[in-house]
Amino acid sequence: MDDPLKRLETRVAALEKTVEELKKAAGLPEKQETEKPRGDEGFLLAEVEKRGGRAHVPDLRRAVPWDNRRFDQALTSLASKGCVALHDCAGAMLSIRRMGECYMGDDGQIYSEVSVA
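Below the sequence we write its predicted structure tokens.
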């Protein structure tokens, strides 16, 4: 009897091989390992990942033992590198205190959540 899972795994392997062959034929670079952020950025990214890949900025601020400036620098750097996506608080019912704990981007927009990009 044919195992459907085994057939699927075989198809996936064949497709992956075909994709690699096409990339090679097109002159595209081999698989590139993206370097994980280190230091404060890596620590902050790990905190977001621990929370399922999406987290509220105020909760993150409380989770890390840093002042606001250091937190904002790490978050700004992660966002500019495309490691995380920032989500504004449009439509969110936030208290004034909670809004003050959010992140204000260079564009003046207030962001209440961050997710792994």
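Residues 39-116 form a domain with the Arc Repressor Mutant, subunit A fold (CATH 1.10.10).
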